[in-house]
Amino acid sequence: MNFELFPPLQRAWLVALWFLWSAFLFGGLILGSPHENRRMPRWTRMASSWTLVVAGWSWWLFLQHTEVGLYAFWIALGMTFGGLGDLFLAELLGIKGTRAVIAGIGAFGVGHLAYIGAILYGAKRFSTPSMMQFGQVLMLFWIIALIGWWGMVMRGQKHRHVVHWAALPYALLLATTAGLAAGMASQSMAFWPLAAGAFLFLVSDLILAGALFGGLKWPYMHDIVWMAYGPGQMLIVYSIGVVYMQTL
After folding, report:
1. At what angle do helices 221-247 and 69-89 cross, to 10 degrees?
2. CA–CA separation, 45 vs 142, rounded Å?
3. Model pLDDT, residue 10
4. How many domains does the chain have?
5. How far, in Å, CA of 89 to CA of 86, rounded?
């Protein structure tokens, strides 16, 4: 990304936020102490997420009067709901257990609707993707989500509850975001960061669903989730700049 095209203060701010996000995410992993089968402290995870919220709204503030202003708005809004979902899952908003998980899924779901809004705006404004190609890619990602949901959440469950079934439409929603982003990326290289980020988000949530609902246990599983989720969200947020470069 050519940050030289931005005014110096804006450029410094966006780069500083990226380094701050990296410090919170990777610093928490490297310097954290093992606790409950994870190394990353809760505060560094939340700080990394909300640093991206600030970055998202910063991109929008700097680019709101350009062609990508609305794209930046939807991405920033989606990241905000993602940060809210992180707070719910970390049980920092006054609810715990299954209710916190459901609230987190709801927040992430709204966030992905915003991401889909950004993708559809990008498709209308910056590209002319083939509807057949969109359909083919979407079908592929829906199949991936369905297989992942069954393997991670449902397989081997003797007692299936509402949260197990609620994970299916949520997985399909995330797959829709990833599929639409991949469809855009097949038409324009500018959307590859968005597509990669959406795919990492889908992978992280399938693993997390396996841990929450399917009894899946790996060493440091929650750190693995964040190593996919955090960079995924970063790529989605910083895709704003890449898409902006395409308009120049």
Report:
1. 170
2. 29
3. 92
4. 1
5. 5
Out of 28-32, 62-66, 92-96, 109-113, pick the least confident: 28-32
Residue 165 near residue 153 (C-beta atoms within 8 A): no
Higher pLDDT, 180 or 124: 180
What pLDDT was estimated at residue 31? 82
Asked whether residue 1 is assigned to any structural domain, the reply reads no
Q: Is 114 part of a structural domain of the chain?
A: yes
Q: Is residue 198 within 8 Å of residue 232, measured between CB atoms?
A: yes
In a domain, 52, yes or no: yes
For residue 102, give its domain range: 7-247
Q: 121 lies in a domain?
A: yes
Say how far apart CA 19 and CA 32 lie, in whole Å.
18
- Per DSSP, what are the bridge partners of residue 35? 38
Q: Which residues pair with 38 in a beta bridge?
A: 35
Rounded mean pLDDT, 162-175? 82
